[in-house]
Amino acid sequence: GESPDSDFLRKALGGGILCSKCSLGENGGRAGEIGNPTELSILRAAYFGNVPVSEVKDSSPVVAEVPFSSEYKFMATVHEPIEENDGSELMNKLIVHVKGAPDRMIPLCKYQAKGGSFKEEDLEPCERDYWIDQIAILSSHGLRVLALTRGSLEKGAVKQGEQLGPEFVQERGEPWLTIVGLCAIMDPPRPECVQAIAEAHGAGVRVAMITGDHRDTALAIGSMLGLVDREHSEAVTGPEMDSMSEAELRIATQKYNVFARASPQNKIRIVKALQAEGEVCGMTGDGVNDAPALKAADMGVAMG
User: Is the N end or the C end of the chain the one with fewer CB atoms within 10 Å?
Assistant: First the structure.
């Protein structure tokens, strides 16, 4: 029943600290912070749990990394082991931290950590159904959920500065990671966003949301925004759209206002499907991969 101490939090959130491109602002605040708000929230949670975030980062620099991409929805970093982070049993290994969408991470996990220990004898078989249930519960409240996972490799398996692709994580023949835990982050819509959508609706403009979030998270946020109603009560996911023909996707773009777990390729197909239905389509995007969809739209709005 006691609150976890800083040593436990250091191990639990260590992957979120190390597998990150972010820097906290002064005294853990927003002034001077650098990076993605979702990643920053993990660092901030660690900081206010008395974890020495800068010390953790400085003591275990990145050997090599798999950069994040919306295609595979995770990033990974490789580090030399540090006893305070990893325990003495793994000092002859390389440590791999992988942070990403839980539905992509869970199938890659063989074990789950227990009691903040990464000793082999303390690891348990990954109870996938349990984690899937927890993800659904958290997502249904509009929380953005990330999985923190880790693994180990033999020394010398990765060279300093080596360019790694997603296959480094995904293509090892069998599950090999250990899930450490889930981070649930509240990223509510801004009030002005809710008002803007209401005004668009008043002008006869239909608004749809395309997001990389889990279906349940997307539906919860869509409800807050006023995008989910009796006519558009469900969400469709990127993998579901991938399996649709062009005709089926045209129907889907009329049926759904919420598109979850979407990729940049899904966005351009949605644009073309809406245009094929005779609709004038505006599209927003904040990443380089969004450029084709913005160019294809009748109105492309680059953000960020």
Answer: N
